[in-house]
Write a structure and sequence with these properties.
single chain, alpha+beta, D-Maltodextrin-Binding Protein, domain 2, 2 domains, four-stranded mixed beta sheet, three-stranded antiparallel beta sheet, 18 helices, 11 strands, binds alpha-D-glucopyranose, signal, transport, ABC transporter-binding protein, SBP, maltose binding
């Protein structure tokens, strides 16, 4: 039997077995894969699932940016279209998209109990489980080990120290002829990524979480203003002006190209930065994001879940796909190949996962202390809130406003969005 015939035979036998087990006949699922570094793995996993189940997949390329992706998904779901059977859901979206997502409860067979309970709790909408976690996320500070050693600088632990070390090394490297060298890169495009970065700055300065757990708008305070002013002072000095348009990939390209001392990014950048073709392979260190003046660390909780559209014509098959890509095996591969943080606790002790990502041993503590964006309390209105917050931060970073003025403007806008209550 040649390979195609063998695969066909296996697939038919499997379909028959699955049919007997009560699963639907062969179906084609429309599956989104984001542009950027994770596309290949997304496509490969989808194809493997299709082959193992006797179904087929149609890969739909969707934007990398969380904000652009949300706009697309709202459009598709808003028109009750089956253009996508499954969706990858950012940790801040269950309250926004929940009404369009299928209840996965009947299909999981208890699989949700394998994951961190807090992540599962976040995936409930009106008492239903509407998504299963694929990976979690918490940012770290990447630094150039070789450059810190060369200039005899310790790994910085506060934003102030990081600023000074970045200035010093950037200047010395430029004096030595590396004129494209920068001190620090991060995400400052006007989108969800900037909300994550700016929340970390203000929270680590003791300025709180924009809106507190009771729904009170707390963002307009001197600590938050000071944090934004410090970040504003970076742009044009230790950070290129271009940062105002960087997402995660924009920052990674500069750091991975060897042109930055420090970078704020999510764990996915580790595997790529140490890839065979990376100019900084073996030269990267990782440490928690720096602390504010009173010794507080902060790291925004991120992460992605898989969900099934309520408008899918193949909900049961789509639920099987979602369980497949969130399973322990799939998460283990995601951790090893793509540097993603698992949501299954046992994988933090898995020797192969730790070999690929030695620093994961410390990431559980970072995750446990991470700060959530105010998405639960603002529910459906979260994206409007975030949009105003990232614009307020962008105004300061682009030199158009002081931290204090921008936050006072933001407070009025948030009050209008809230109306009588969230
Ligand atoms: C990462 C995080 C996600 C966040 C996004 C912002 O993908 O996992 O939660 O919203 O970055 O760019």
């Amino acid at each position: 039997m040649n390979k195609t015939a063998k695969t066909l035979f296996a697939t038919t036998a499997l379909s028959a077995a699955l049919g007997a087990a009560g699963l639907a006949q062969a179906a084609t699922l429309n599956i989104p894969c984001s542009t950027g570094s994770g596309f290949a793995s997304c496509e490969q996993t989808a194809q493997e699932w299709a082959e193992s189940r006797g179904h087929s997949v149609n890969i739909v390329t969707v934007p990398f940016s969380s904000s652009e992706k949300l706009a697309l998904y709202q459009q598709i779901l808003g028109s009750q279209s089956a253009d996508l059977d499954v969706l990858d859901v950012d940790v801040v979206w269950p309250g926004i998209l929940g009404a369009h997502l299928a209840d996965l409860g009947p299909y999981t067979n208890g699989a949700e109990n394998d994951h961190f309970a807090s992540v599962i709790a976040n995936n409930q909408y009106n008492g239903k489980l509407v998504a299963i976690p694929q990976y979690t996320d918490a940012p770290v500070l990447y630094y150039r080990k070789d450059l810190l050693e060369k200039y005899n600088e310790p790994v910085p632990t506060t934003w102030q120290q990081m600023t000074e070390t970045a200035e010093r090394i950037q200047k010395a490297e430029r004096d030595a002829g590396h004129d494209r060298m920068w001190g620090f890169v991060f995400q400052a495009k006007a989108y969800e990524g900037l909300t994550c970065d700016a929340l970390e700055w203000i929270d680590s300065f003791g300025g709180g979480t924009i809106i507190d757990a009771d729904g009170k708008i707390t963002v307009n305070n001197p600590q938050s203003a000071a944090a934004l002013d410090l970040a504003g002072s970076w742009v044009g000095n230790i950070t290129p002006q271009g940062v105002l348009n960087y997402d995660e990939e924009g920052a990674r390209r500069v750091f991975q190209g060897g042109d930055a001392v420090f970078m704020r990014n999510w764990p996915y950048a580790w595997a790529l930065g140490n890839g065979e073709d990376s100019p900084v392979k073996g030269k990267i260190g990782i440490t928690p994001l720096p602390m504010g003046p009173d010794g507080k660390h902060s790291a925004t909780l991120g992460g992605w879940q898989m969900a099934v559209s309520k408008y899918s014509e193949n909900i049961e098959v789509a639920a099987d796909y979602v369980l497949y890509v969130s399973s322990k095996d799939a998460q283990k591969r995601g951790a090893i190949v793509d540097g993603r943080l698992p949501t299954i606790p046992a994988l933090y002790e898995d020797p192969e996962v730790l070999e690929a990502n030695p620093y994961f041993a410390n990431m559980r503590a970072v995750l446990e202390n991470s700060v959530a964006r105010p998405s639960s309390v603002t529910g459906e209105k979260y994206n409007q809130v975030s949009n105003e917050f990232w614009n307020a931060a962008h105004r300061v970073l682009s030199g158009k406003s002081s931290g204090a003025d921008s936050l006072s403007q933001l407070e009025s806008k948030l009050k209008r969005i809230r109306g009588r209550r969230w």
